[in-house]
Amino acid sequence: MGALTVDGYNVIYAWDDLRELMGVSLEVARDRLVQRLSTLVHVAGTEVTVVFDAGRGVSTAGSQEVRDGVRMVFTRRGTTADHLIERSAYQARRRGQPLEVATSDRFHGAMLRGMGAAVIDASELRRRVERAEAEIGKRLAASR
Q1: Which range marks the domain in which residue 20 is found?
Q2: Considering the domain boundaries, does residue 1 fall inside one?
Q3: Helix/strand/coil for 47
Q4: Bridge-partner residues for 65, per DSSP?
Q5: CA-CA distance, 14 to 111, in Å (whole number)?
Q6: Cα 60 → chain centroid
Q7: Is 56 contained in some domain?
Q8: How many other CB atoms are there within 10 angstroms of residue 1's CB atom?
Q9: Spatial distance between the Cα atoms of 12 and 64, rounded to a whole number of angstroms
Q10: What pTM did the predictor assign?
């Protein structure tokens, strides 16, 4: 099982459909992202963590929850998602565990690569999610 950390708002802004949902509600866009990421948990057995900045209307103390197999992390006020993801990459490298990070921030991606993380952009993440969704569709069709 691989580990994937997703820069939540970065991906929401990168995916047109999620960016449009932000016009309706930030919470709806976050929930839809988590729902779609859960397919990677269920199909590929990927351990998925999605990180959101606290400055976007959630608790200032920071929090974590698991929804449909996806670990959602909301940073504390004053801590960015980038910082928390960098810390995770550093800790994974110290433990000798591979970590993959999804972000379309090229500067941040270069920093993470330097820390030993594998980095994919939001479009590659979207392709993986779509393949996982198609696999779930096949499994459902075969079970009927």
Answers
A1: 6-143
A2: no
A3: strand
A4: 72
A5: 19
A6: 20
A7: yes
A8: 7
A9: 19
A10: 0.90
Dig out the tokens for 83 from the structure.
Answer: 């910082």
Q: What are phi and psi of 99, to 5 degrees?
A: -135, 135
Average pLDDT taken over every residue of the chain: 91
Query: SS3 for 138?
Result: helix
- pLDDT for res 144: 79
Whether 58 is in a domain gets the answer yes
pLDDT tens for each residue of 83-135: 999 999 998 889 888 899 999 999 999 999 988 899 999 999 999 999 999 99
How many domains, the chain?
A: 1
Identity at 101, one-letter amino acid code: V
Structure tokens at 61: 């103390």
- How many angstroms separate the CA atoms of 18 and 11, rounded? 8
Distance separating alpha carbons of residues 59 and 67, to the nearest angstrom: 17
CA distance 98 to 102: 14
d(CA 2, CA 41): 10
Q: What sections of 3-143 are H helices per DSSP? A: 8-14, 16-24, 26-44, 81-95, 106-114, 122-143
- Whether 59 is covered by a domain: the verdict is yes
Which distant-in-sequence residues (6+ apart) come within 8 Å of 25 by Cβ? none
